[in-house]
Design goal:
Layout: H1 2-20, H2 24-44, H3 48-72, H4 76-79, H5 85-108, H6 117-120, H7 124-132, H8 136-158
């Protein structure tokens, strides 16, 4: 319980640092710590398959895309993130609504359960079959989405700057 609390607290603090960091590179590093912390929480809860998937897919794949995106678009105007007060208000309202929803669902998870929790949990085989049948299309859509993000980052990095009007170009 103490280890879970320590990891959950560190994960929550690093997630907060992702949101509050004004430097996009530091925000990406904090995101890495957040994703690793979530993976550790899965391992502590006994969901080794989900924890390993978190490490491989999100920490491995997504963070590589984030790092390349930052490297490709690391121009001066993209390095510092400026947030207007209206964006903070919308973000706080959405975060509060999401937290309320998650807390409500979490508190209602145990209601009406007649069997022991370990008997109703799916095994690794059932998860694999689910990923290859029911959840195959969403997985492929996410893969294509990540590819589009990488192509967009490359396009932004290679975009030519338009010459200013009135300035002679060579």
């Amino acid at each position: 319980m103490i280890l879970f609390t320590a990891i959950a607290s560190a994960t929550g603090l690093s997630a907060l640092a992702v949101v509050l960091s004004r430097n996009i590179v530091r925000s990406a590093v904090w995101l890495l710590f957040t994703l690793v912390g979530v993976s550790l929480l899965y391992f502590l809860l006994g969901a080794e398959f989900v924890g390993a998937t978190q490490l491989i897919v999100y920490v491995g794949g997504t963070m590589v895309l984030v790092v390349f995106g930052v490297m490709l678009t690391a121009q001066q105007q993209f390095l510092k993130i400026r947030t207007r007060p209206q964006e903070w208000i919308v973000g706080i309202v959405l975060a509060g609504a999401l937290f309320t929803l998650l807390a409500t669902v979490s508190l209602r998870l145990g209601e009406g359960r007649t069997t022991a929790p370990t008997e109703s949990m799916p095994g690794t085989g059932q998860l694999g079959v689910g990923f290859l049948t029911t959840y195959l299309l969403p997985f492929e859509i996410i893969s294509v989405h990540l590819l589009v993000v990488l192509i967009g980052a490359a396009y932004l990095a290679r975009a030519k700057r338009r010459p200013r009007e009135g300035v002679a170009s060579d």
